[in-house]
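Hello,

Following up on my earlier ticket. Below are the four sequence lines again, exactly as submitted.
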Amino acid sequence: MSLSELTDVLTSLPGLGPRQARRVVEYLLRKDSAYRERLAALIAGARLEVSECTRCFRFDAPSASGLCRTCADGSRDASLLMVVEHDVDIDAIEAALTYRGYYFVLGGLLNLVKQRKDKILRTRELLERITPEVREVICALAATPEGDYTAKELMTQIRAARPGVAVSVLGRGLSVGAELEYADPETLRSALKNRG
Amino acid sequence: MSLSELTDVLTSLPGLGPRQARRVVEYLLRKDSAYRERLAALIAGARLEVSECTRCFRFDAPSASGLCRTCADGSRDASLLMVVEHDVDIDAIEAALTYRGYYFVLGGLLNLVKQRKDKILRTRELLERITPEVREVICALAATPEGDYTAKELMTQIRAARPGVAVSVLGRGLSVGAELEYADPETLRSALKNRG
Amino acid sequence: MSLSELTDVLTSLPGLGPRQARRVVEYLLRKDSAYRERLAALIAGARLEVSECTRCFRFDAPSASGLCRTCADGSRDASLLMVVEHDVDIDAIEAALTYRGYYFVLGGLLNLVKQRKDKILRTRELLERITPEVREVICALAATPEGDYTAKELMTQIRAARPGVAVSVLGRGLSVGAELEYADPETLRSALKNRG
Amino acid sequence: MSLSELTDVLTSLPGLGPRQARRVVEYLLRKDSAYRERLAALIAGARLEVSECTRCFRFDAPSASGLCRTCADGSRDASLLMVVEHDVDIDAIEAALTYRGYYFVLGGLLNLVKQRKDKILRTRELLERITPEVREVICALAATPEGDYTAKELMTQIRAARPGVAVSVLGRGLSVGAELEYADPETLRSALKNRG
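Thanks for your patience. The regenerated structure is below:
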């Protein structure tokens, strides 16, 4: 029965477990057919409304240039390139109102254990994106083992391919609300090093 | 842009918040068009594959009789009718391997504060379902204020309309893992009453 | 140094971990000596102010009879004896305002894995307490594996030693706030059995 | 009855609530008198075994010099002075194995709303401790509103009283395990500023 296939596909979406997928299926069945058809049309047509930026691989409204809003904005600082995992990370950085350089969406992180087969990881495209005007690549990845491992790999590859380019990672430290007593040694070392 | 409409619709699904909806959208955009079209087809066609049982209102594979598997099963105990809120509650009860009567899906609970406009609540259909062979209606609703209030209302209406039918609610008591010291007085009273 | 011994002893108290014990030590050091001496006097003299009831082993204000308030209250139902683990469980049951029998404080639970050396478990005293007027012993222990195992052992011993006495356990069921969908099968079976 | 006074005093200790205090009281009553007397002696005599360092106000084993281990250690970097709230914070910093300067225990934080009457805050003693050899004072306080407010006040006072001394705070940034998407703007700004 295709309902169980629907449940399986919903379970594969990020953040949905089997129980929640079944609640969503029951919810969809209870709504009228116009609701289901509208949702289906929105999903089927999702990519028609957006275009993947040819420079940073972020999704945005299509443009004649093939570039997203940010890449098309010539007033930003072309010497800085920030590598993020997901599109949503760009929104978080923009909300901090401090970064004025460009972005690059890596699409995923290196897996410490094994490579998942559908993994996106645009390492080659990243190296091509590091044009001569880029002076620093900022690896803005998660402060997790996978994020650290990916950043380390990127650093190695960038330094080999583009020796003159600086590669940095986001600073570690006390996050807002943290108390010293409960902080781990690595965070304290970074917090001490980054004091100011 | 229809992507923000897609995000809004996804946010309206049970258990998804705005942040999770945006992750799902990004995920959908990253998949190929065959994936999106398959998911859309499954959603649009969901109701074609199932039929709402004409007796208990549960969704199941369509049958010539219009009845779900359980209602079509003549070997169950027709004197017992259990009222549940959702289809998924039936799965939970069946997994406990102890109930042999029939079910009725109420579709929702009475709201203590105000009535939501899209609320399903099949009180009238429930009263019609209580045929002479039904001897007991078991209100198997959540142990929450809304569940208690709905059960109380159902009891009043069933007793008025079908005076000879017993109406019961599920027993309260210590749930697995509970310690006495932290149990609330109502739970302790029920646990004491239901000792055995 | 005796401060580390103080930290160790505090860590052995129920609910305190090493980190919390060290915070308490620093707190005690910061207070004046009158505070520390008052706390020390209260701890050293704690037992002088209370007496262990000679019938139920609960701590209460000393009395000429050697009995606690409850055991000295002749108006309660002498046919009911409730076995609890701790003194505090009696407070929880009394707060539920429904039980009118007597109590017995077992002092601990049987350990499924190994016996801790300082374990209190007054099984022998319990059997002596089951006088001819006791008609039912209610095992009001935690709904945990250890509580269930202890209740089972008590049942076996009571039935062997006092064949005419009923032995019961508190009822299981939906605890306040529970939703059917998330309840475990054992809880649902009990809730169904104890419906009413 | 002094048992309720004992419960009250225990409830006033850091990290203990009324329920936990009652469990501790019952535990103490169940132990033998030797246990209670030992605990009482350890509490009453706690201060006899330690001495408050006359330079940093930390508690440590008494010494002829009146100084704690760290302050007595002439091999550390006398140009650095780290201000912490509690003794336990020193243990956390030492565990990070990177700081080689001296400490000063402030004893508390400024309260944003109102001053608690038993508040310790050794601002005056801190200013006296900033001898000519101190080149930098590091305010290593919690990353909370109270910690930030206290650090700001200390900075103002130190800069006024010791104009040549640098005053710094610990760096903010992504703490270990953090994902960009969920980081607050202030943390992201610091993480970006402290990249390296």
